[in-house]
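Lecture notes, continued. The same structure-token format from the folding unit now serves as the input rather than the output. Read the line below as a description of shape only.
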């Protein structure tokens, strides 16, 4: 005959394990923000030295024209002929594909 305490303990351990696994699987469906930023920096380095860069570590939902996806937002700066140029970008958090790059105007 099954002991109720063992059953409840097993149920609790199973539920906790399921929650932890679910969180890990949810995070695994995104490319890491570090990899996306590294790729963007490599692309910009082909045209010159990169001065600085940043990226959000947690994906945000972007909805445009009834289409929704998760994106990382980031930025990069460089000097061209002594002039500072700054850009922001959006990257698909699932694939790492750069969706948009635009200059930051002052």
């Amino acid at each position: 005959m099954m002991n109720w305490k063992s059953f409840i303990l097993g149920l609790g351990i199973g539920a906790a394990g399921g929650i932890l696994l679910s969180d890990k699987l949810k995070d695994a469906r995104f490319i890491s923000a570090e990899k996306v930023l590294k790729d963007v920096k490599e692309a910009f380095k082909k045209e010159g030295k990169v001065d600085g860069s940043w990226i959000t570590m947690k994906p945000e939902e972007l909805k445009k024209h009834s289409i929704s996806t998760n994106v990382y937002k980031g930025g990069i700066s460089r000097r061209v002929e002594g002039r500072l140029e700054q850009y922001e970008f959006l990257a698909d958090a699932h694939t790492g594909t750069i969706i948009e790059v635009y200059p930051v105007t002052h």
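Point for the exam: The longest strand covers residues 67-80.
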